[in-house]
# Entry
Amino acid sequence: MNADDIKIELEHLSMAYGPYVVMRDINARVKHGSIFVIMGESGSGKSTLLRTMIGLQPPGEGDILYDGQSFWGLDEEARRVQVRKFGVLFQSSALWSSMTLAENVELPLAQYTDWPQADRQEVVRLKLALVGLAGFEDYYPAEISGGMRKRAGLARAMALDPEILFFDEPSAGLDPVLSRNLDQLILELRDSLGATVVVVTHELASIFTIADDSIFLDAESKTVRVQGNPMELREHSADPKIRTFLTRGEFSERGATP
Amino acid sequence: MTTTACIPNLVVERASPGVLLARVSGNWRERATLPGVEPVRQVLREEPSVKSLEFDTAGLTGWDSRFVAFISQCADMVRGRDIEVQCDGLPEGVRRLLRLAHAVPDKADAHRAVVKASFFRNVGERTIQGWEGILGLFTFLGQNLMALVNLLRGRAQFRWADALQVMEQTGPQALGIVALINFLVGLILAFVGALELARFGASIYVADLVGIATVREMGCIMTGIILCGRTGAAFAAQLGTMKVNEEINALQTFGFSPIEFLVLPRMVALLLMMPFLCVFGDLISIAGGYFVSVGMLDITSTEYVSRTIHAIQLKSFLLGIVKGTFFGFLVAYTGCLRGMQSGQTAAAVGQATTRAVVSGISAIVASDGLFAVLCNALRI
# Structure
């Protein structure tokens, strides 16, 4: 791997609450422009790792390098500048409930750009149209369905044309059709924006559709059990736990579809 | 079906040497009380040579989860005693449920360990918690002051639209309740004063009593407490809910400071609205006293008004306003602090609201006491 190709480096990330270990010595590298999936069983620390990556929770030890620059070594002010390069889609969408969809997308633009308002509104319309929500500008988050909220959250995450998009369980709470649509949307956005994408999920259909690379976090050791392309891992991994994880779900899913 | 056939019944007998047969009959579905496992336990105790436990359910006309639980309990009872449980006699559904229930073995370490912490450990943990709580208070205060300084320097991520909206909610929309409470307090002060002062023939001094008590103490303190219950609670609930919905996390991931974005508008709104609410409360309270005095005592309108104007000194009036503004700060501070400290569950938001009101009112009354001592020392 060429050093220039590396967008994100996780270096010896560890964290514990008292005697309870949440992450243990997590190391991984994410290539520029790739879709990187963090998978693992419940309680393996996926969400904690994501919170550390987006700056919500400092790690106990270790650091994250974005473009070779230390992230947790920055002071708070500099970190606040760095996170503007991120777009995050939260599991619950986390739209600001007191604002309309258009205001949700516009707020970051209003804060960080000096564009005239007309331009901003055009960009807002474009972003909402990209996720299929044209015409819903003046709706409040409480007035639309869960799937639409998720897409609106994605439009907001893209507001500042982020270099890295983070998704926390994007298919949680969506029906299978909607979550396949979201997978397609993620792929298209990556291809058109050229962004690096980090996804936390344990849904196998998503994992096989979108992932270029992945890590599997182990619930017992709380560390990276394996890194690699999930398709290849399914075929070639010698680790029975990984194979079980990557095949059992698929079988049951096949069983579920008539 | 006869009545006896419906009664759930359990007969435990020895079918052959070493085999215990539990004959179950009747409807195990509708009765409140069922035969427990006690008969089985008793026979097992009396017959140590039992090798197998069988069930006969030919007479069983109905069963539900309690029956399955009963069988499961029997199975638990003989576990570790080298007794075989024969499930063949059980209905198909019961057998399936039992298989399902025992498919995944009990995870022994999943049960919460009930460890009673030692007294000293509890004291230590509470002390550390308390200390961290105090540190949190000052950290939050510091962050707020920094945000205020940033605002004055024009560098805060601050939206006046938000502040104006909060101002409307905390100011004009609170006028009704502020008026009602202060009017009643004015009435009460006048009544109490009138009764006592009439004994000395000094009823006219009711105007002094109501005027001074209102502008120095009651006006600002009542308004502060009303706002604490009304606005402080709302702040805590709003911020707490935003925390539950990850809205605050979302702000942070855009590099927004939640303090400047959420707390500062509320703080500024209350600081700007409180002086007006205080003056308004003062006037209404004095009007309450006026109604009692003019309506029930022999005091003319002119007398009351002129006594009131005479009695109230400018410094008393200003003191009330300053105190009121400070109480406004306390309400915003405690409301936002508790909201930001809220956990991520519905119960935690309720707790945050309660704590906001409790700490707000305590802070108001305590600081009023401090003001009284200071004013006494400074002879204000």
Q: What stands out?
A: DSSP finds nine helices and ten strands in chain A. Chain A has a mean pLDDT of 87. Residues 98 and 140 of chain A are 7 Å apart (CA to CA).
